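forwarding from the other thread:

> can someone predict this with iron/sulfur cluster?

sure thing
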Amino acid sequence: MQPETKPSHTEVEHVKAKSDYLRGTLAESLNNTLSGALNPEDTHLIKFHGSYQQTDRDLDSERKIQKLEPLYSFMIRVRVPGGVATPAQWLRMDALADQYANGTLKLTTRQAFQLHGVHKRHLKSAIRGFNEVLLDSLAGCGDVSRNVMCSPNPEESRVHAAVQEVARSISATFTPRTTAYYEIWLDGQPVDKSQPFATHKPGGADEEPVYGNTYLPRKFKIALAVPPQNDTDVFANDIGLIAIEKDGELAGFNVAAGGGLGMTFGEPQTFPRLADMLGFVETKDILKVCEAIITTQRDHGNRENRRLSRLKYTIERMGLATFKREVEVRSGVSFQPEKPYRFEGTGDRYGWTPAAGGRFHLTLFVEGGRVADTPSYQLKTALRVVATVHDGDFRLTGNQNLIIGNISPEKRPAIEAILEKYGVLEHTFRQTALRQHSLACVALNTCSQAFAEAERYLPALLDKIDDILRETGLEQEAITIRMTGCPNGCARPYLAEIGLVGKAVGKYNLYLGAAFNGERLNKLYREMLDEEGILRELRPLLQAYAGERNPGERFGDFCIRKGWVQATTHGTNFHG
Ligand code: SRM
Ligand code: SF4
């Protein structure tokens, strides 16, 4: 049975409970033309619809001086299960970015699109716009299962296709059933008539068979990966599914649970943690097992303190053995011993790769995941033009990059010419391997949580780190580097060989020693470094790596061998 809301529960729990399946007063908030903001309680609910109310933080203090309301606008996160979008969907997102947002598209670390800077009066039009091409933002954010990630690995095989199919069915199964989304944003009409659409009965007769009316205690993330590629960072997820192949077919998945990276500075009871392995299950049982994990978290997760409410803390509290037993009882499926597998890396493979049917995939580097035109290369324009001629697909990767997928041999010369004309190919191939393995979260100017810059600053810092790489001959050495503007970990910095986490304006903590393949967290090495400090600390480390590494030794492993940091063997020893 689902738990009742108690007085000790957080405000968000009470807002969910009385929201009538995520309606609240959103419709009223949208109609209020006196403010660019929503009613305070609706700011929680709109997250479940895939949007965040934000302010332009660059302008906050100036507007305060002028006694103006902050410049409110909205971020919309558009789900792309498994990251695969059509050219028509790309063109629509591109147009919506210009029409209603800040003229750019953000490709996120979870294979979704984000629009930033959408004013309240344009929210409905923007949401209708992408629904018309069968994209949605329902469950983009909020205390539910989010966009399901899946390896978009260009190396096609029957297993990859089967895993994509499982990702789609997990996404569909755990999408909230509430009809509020259609009611509020689409005036009660599903744009795609094939979408499930129940008529809302007054009095809250919507049903959420998996979630119940208070949904989950916290966000919930699922990712699938096909070894040897761990390009979805499966262990950072509440549920990580590792595809196991037998005789060229998908046999099932090793199931890991309880990953999550967020922490709060100064609160050591919060920590990044990698998912624990529960064991192997056959493909036919995967939905049952996922549902059992989700409902165990629904019923046992902490609803009194959102900082301790992720599944990782539930497992710590229950103990792994008890948690696993509970999942087996709920699902009626017994875990088999984990099957052998090997991950090589978390990165993308840039450039051209063959695809099925004589077609090709082309993986492009998108710095910080930002699709925009810049003076040196015009990525947004180039991709728009490509989308008008392309008969394959666009695949968003978990590394904020883009694969132009399934390019036919006939279209390849035209697509190549477009990308060359706008400087896009050169932009991908001239980078150091370290930059090609970089991630940066959004941070300023839109993220309310940011203490420091990330996406807007990392490219300039990398220019300086590139100089060190050139001096030391490490330009082609793949090293993962990730920067975030706060410890929430949106660019998965605790899984980077070089992790930089913003602590104050212009100041970062430096973490070292994560595994290149996403199987070990890093550890704090230095605190509160400014740019000079970061370069001063990194230079001797990279010099030593260049001169003293063993053949094939990764930078993260080298940092541990040299004793610069201790290996983090579990989330509970991340801080110590
Ligand atoms: Fe995140 C909150 C952006 C992936 C952990 N994340 C936020 C918010 C919504 C800020 C807020 O709460 O006000 C950020 C919106 C900024 C903006 O202006 O767009 C934000 N997160 C992002 C994105 C866009 C980063 C990016 O540059 O790509 C990623 C969107 C993914 C998506 O499409 O769904 C993003 N966030 C992640 C990841 C990486 C992942 O899932 O693989 C993590 C770490 C994994 C995890 O969940 O533990 C992550 N975001 C968080 C947290 C910390 C959660 C925790 O358990 O403590 C928060 C804060 C929160 O939930 O309270 C957060
Ligand atoms: Fe914002 Fe922090 Fe996430 Fe960066 S890591 S997007 S600063 S919440």
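Residues 159 and 247 are 10 Å apart (CA to CA). thats all i got for now
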